[in-house]
UniProtKB/TrEMBL annotation:
Transmembrane helix keyword on record: yes
Coiled coil: 75-102
Name of this protein: Type IV pilus assembly protein PilO
Record InterPro entries: PilO, Transl_elong_EF1B/ribsomal_bS6
Organism: Microbulbifer donghaiensis
Amino acid sequence: MALEDTLKKLNELDINDIDFSRVGVWPLAGRIALLIVIAAVLVGGGYYFLIGDRYQTLEFAANKEKELFTTFEKKSFEAANLDAYREQLAEMEETFGALLKQLPKDTEVPGLLEDIDEFGRGSGLTIQKVALENEQVGEFYVELPIRIEVEGGYHEFGAFVSGIAGMPRIVTLHDFDINSGKNGALLSMVINAKTYRYKDQGEEG
């Protein structure tokens, strides 16, 4: 019954009748209400100043743990497949080396131009021009443009292009331009060919 009486007095308490200078003589209900308010303030302040910051720290630590766990899983997977990666790297190096062998060296470029000239004449074409133009330095290789001007017929052009495509060195053909020749019987063709060589470390891009 004492609890019910206390609750009843709290409900009947008028805030306007409270005199904070005489807390000691307050009714029991008023003193209980004041204690409840003080306790709520202490709990709220303690949570805000102590527990709240630590909760944020805990949340940050939990996120960091997830990030580290993800990194660990990735590293663990890489470690488990290290031998496979090494085999793939060896295969890539071998393939890359084979491709480099197909790129002409500086000393081989004149011979490459002579081979193109021979392919043209062997296909029955009249060679007007086979000339190396200015180099284009890229990030990993140097591009060597070659301008080719020939005269002949469609079949001869086809044989010539097939011959260049079958060369052991890498040569690509671009920008075909075919027009009627001067005498009307033959056709003239201009091709921009490109070959490549490996870029030395000292060369600037």
